[in-house]
Specification:
Layout (H helix, E strand, L loop, with lengths): L4 H10 L3 H17 L3 H28 L20 H7 L3 H4 L3 E5 L6 H14 L4 E5 H13 L3 H8 L4 E7 L6 H14 L4 E6 L6 H4 L3 H13 L1 E5 L5 H8 L1
Parallel strand pairs: 1-4, 1-5, 2-3, 3-4
The structure holds adenosine-5'-diphosphate and magnesium ion (MG).
Length: 247
């Protein structure tokens, strides 16, 4: 029987282990150079495939998340933003809040880093293997409305529930109509104690009634969001303003 690298690689490819197939020649060379045992080599092959697959899955999840920009927590300057500490943010990064289906709410005026933190945390959650979806409130409401008009609101909400975490950016910036509020309520209701959300908003909860038009709907929405949530009130100067002034 001929046993060339190409023939063996082709067999791995047939079993959809493409990373082993592609890396086989190199892995063999390294194994021979390092004189590792057969068992170690067997382990290396499967680890190589697993690592490559995880990497691809994370890449795909990053694309699906739809972040408008890349923001990393490493770039966040806690000397400028002193109303939240690095320790507070780092405590979130074991992602227990996702496993507990808890929510995060960042409240504060424009430019204080709410969206930066939300995206940074979302990014790390993806690296940790979670699925994340980012949307501004406006696009989310539009998306739900489109689905509702097609009679597919339930299916749309179900498709959003496939994510472990939904980031809803800029809640409360623009008023929405009654149907929009109703659709959002349906979604928040479906997420309640089942999936987590991160919300950024410039309004504190006492003002949310006004945004949601009708307090009857606002109260249960707000209630559900804050029931299991970590709330961060951010203050300070706008970072945008600071950058503008420094230039
Ligand atoms: P918000 O959502 O609160 O309006 P952003 O998160 O969009 O504010 O921040 C505005 C800009 O300033 C973004 O480019 C963001 O990356 C940057 N920024 C804000 N706060 C900080 C900070 N503490 N360190 C580094 N960059 C910051
Ligand atoms: Mg923002």
């Amino acid at each position: 029987m001929t046993c060339s690298i190409e023939v063996v690689a082709q067999k791995y490819r047939g079993l959809r282990c493409t990373s082993i197939a592609d890396g086989l020649a190199n892995l063999l060379k390294q194994a021979e150079a390092n004189e590792i045992s057969h068992l170690e080599f067997a382990d290396q092959l499967v680890e190589h495939e697993q690592n490559q697959r995880n990497g691809k899955r994370i890449e795909l999840n990053m694309r699906k998340a739809g972040f408008p920009v890349t923001k990393r927590l490493e770039e966040f300057d806690y000397r400028h933003q002193t109303t939240i500490t690095k320790r507070q943010v780092n405590q979130l990064l074991d992602f227990r809040f996702l496993d507990e289906r808890a929510n995060l709410v960042f409240i504060g005026p424009p430019g204080v880093g709410k969206t930066h933190l939300a995206i940074g945390i979302g990014h790390q959650a993806i690296d940790a293997g979670y699925k994340v979806f980012f949307s501004t409130t406006i696009s989310l409401v539009e998306m739900l409305e489109l689905a509702q008009l097609k009679g597919e609101l339930k299916q749309k909400i179900a498709s959003l529930q496939k994510f472990d975490l939904l980031i809803i950016d800029e809640l409360g910036y623009l008023p929405m109509n009654k149907q929009g509020v109703y659709n959002l309520f349906q979604m928040i209701n479906a997420f309640y104690e089942y999936r987590s959300v991160i919300i950024t908003t410039n309004k504190d909860f006492t003002n949310w009634g006004e945004f949601f038009h009708n307090d009857n709907v606002a109260v249960p929405i707000v209630d559900r969001i804050i029931h299991h949530s970590h709330i961060f009130m951010l203050g300070g100067e706008s970072y945008r303003l600071k950058q503008k002034l420094e230039n």
